[in-house]
Design brief:
The protein contains twelve helices and 17 strands. It has 443 residues and is of the alpha+beta class. The protein folds into two domains: 349 residues, Kinesin motor domain (Kinesin); 70 residues, no CATH class. The strands form three sheets. Strands 1, 5, 6, 7, 8, 9, 10, 11, 12, 13, 16 and 17 form a twelve-stranded mixed beta sheet that branches. Helix 7 runs antiparallel to helix 8 and helix 10 packs parallel to helix 12. The site of adenosine-5'-triphosphate has 19 residues, from helix 4. GO terms for molecular function: ATP binding; ATP hydrolysis activity; microtubule binding; microtubule motor activity.
Length: 443
């Protein structure tokens, strides 16, 4: 295995949730074997269903009795030292609606260790480690920058900013920018709101932010269970300090100062070109003999613009310097609670959950499937060490680009959540096939 390949480890785990009270049709028979590799092959069967066995693809498999603490200890805990060393570690929950993704990633009880979701448990451990580092004494206390937004169709919705709709775009620098509405400030300055990051200095303040923001999560109306989420929720916990927050704020301020100066340079250029040329009878353009283009005026406006661009670059360099001032700064845990995968029954008929959907929900379902297929291709390309990774294929993968690229020395994993109910056989089979396609590429 090459060094690069080692740095791109991606593991796939399987989690069987318990049967719910209304799942009375019986349980899928399941097996899991280690063959000649360190990965497990998973097999399923049920009366009147076609049995299926995966290739060796799963790093581990969790039974219904395994609680969230067992998952945290097995999958996430070992990543903590990497995050404290500045790496980015990413975790995805994939599964059909109601299979246990939100229970796994976020949880419905933030106070008990065996029920809190992986992101809450990670925050708890992170704050414990940061408090030790902070006692060692440093100029700026370390804390956690928390952001939480949803990707739905082609937009992002910032749950830390009243679900404000943000646009997902690729900038000229090739990076993905997620931008909210523009604000007009004094002196013609324009500020484009980025996705909010809340600075949390204690675990309790983080939990409070989580509770408030998750109250705003979008839910669908007619899927498998009432709280079905139709969006991909992306939660980031980044190690920050006040110097980093201030340095990033300075970049935003310099960018808003640049906007009117850049607009002025463009206006001057257009004015001079409009006066300096006249239209000829054949529809072409020629120099206006009655006007001399004022090149000095254009150059002065361009020079002013260059001065403000340099201020932005200097502020960006300062962010990089601050990031380099402590080994932990910029380290990140990223948790992605993916929208429920939608699927067809074996013979192409719509599944029970698809039948009662509105046209808008069906359209959303198609986009969700597009996003999930794009994610599968990105993970396969990433895990197999390819240099060209198709991030542009969907808004979801565009948004995840920086986290994949930032995870060089980190580790990433997907948890495929499935129901053991025979009623959910087709959905479970569908999720296992997806997980094994991702898992075999990660060997
Ligand atoms: N491993 C588990 N142990 C106990 N209860 C679970 C487990 N997994 C899921 N549940 C319960 O099953 C229900 C559905 O789970 P959850 O909301 O996590 O599904 P989901 O996959 O996020 O669905 P959707 O995509 O529709 O949001 C919840 O009541 C949850 O508490």
């Amino acid at each position: 295995m090459t060094q690069d390949k080692l740095a791109r480890q991606f593991s796939v785990f399987l989690r069987w949730r318990p049967l719910t009270n209304d799942e009375v049709a019986g349980e899928i028979t399941r097996g899991s074997q280690n063959q000649d590799t360190s990965l497990r092959a998973v097999s399923i069967s049920a009366p009147a269903k076609r049995p299926w066995t995966s290739p060796p693809a799963f790093k581990g498999s969790f039974e219904p009795a395994d609680d969230n603490q067992v998952l945290f200890d097995t999958i996430v805990a070992s990543a903590l030292p990497k995050v404290l060393n500045g790496a980015s570690c990413n975790y995805f929950a994939y599964g059909h609606s109601g299979s246990g993704k939100t229970h796994t990633m976020i949880g419905y009880d933030y106070d008990s260790a065996d029920r809190m979701g992986l992101c809450v448990a990670a925050a708890r451990k992170l704050f414990e480690s940061l408090s030790i580092l902070n006692q060692e004494g440093s100029e700026h206390q370390l804390g956690v920058g928390f952001s939480l937004f949803e990707v739905r169709q082609k937009s992002a919705f910032d749950l830390l900013n009243r679900r404000t709709q943000c646009h997902i775009r690729e900038g000229p620098d090739g990076k993905t920018h997620i931008r909210g509405p523009t604000e007009m400030l004094e002196g013609g300055k324009v500020r484009v709101q980025p996705i909010a990051q809340r600075s949390c200095w204690t675990y309790d303040s983080f939990k409070e932010e989580m509770r408030t923001s998750l109250g705003l999560r979008a839910v669908g109306s007619s899927s498998v269970h009432d709280q079905s989420s139709r969006t991909h929720a992306i939660i980031t916990l980044e190690i920050i300090n006040t110097a980093l927050a201030e340095a990033r704020q300075a970049v935003a301020d310099r960018q808003s100062e640049l906007v009117p100066v850049g607009a002025h340079a463009t206006t001057v250029n257009i004015e001079e070109q409009t006066k300096g040329y006249i239209q000829t009878p054949d529809g072409g353009y020629a120099l206006n003999p009655d006007y001399q283009i004022n090149q000095e005026r254009i150059d002065a406006a361009e020079a002013e613009k260059a001065k403000f661009e340099a201020r932005v670059s200097a502020a960006e360099e300062h962010v990089a310097e601050v990031l380099g001032s402590h080994r932990s700064l910029g380290g990140k845990f990223v948790f992605v609670d993916l929208a429920g995968a939608e699927y067809q029954e074996e013979k192409g008929a719509p599944s029970q959950s698809l039948r009662g959907q509105t046209p808008q929900e069906r359209q959303e379902g198609r986009q969700i499937n597009t996003d999930l297929l794009a994610l599968k291709e990105v993970i396969r390309a990433y895990a197999s060490g390819q240099t060209r990774i198709p991030f542009r294929s969907s808004p979801l993968t565009m948004v995840l680009r920086e986290h994949f690229l930032g995870s060089r020395n980190g580790s990433s994993a997907m948890i495929v959540t499935v129901s053991p109910s025979v009623d959910q056989y087709a959905a479970t089979l569908n999720s296992l096939k997806f997980g094994s396609l991702v898992g075999v590429a990660s060997v």
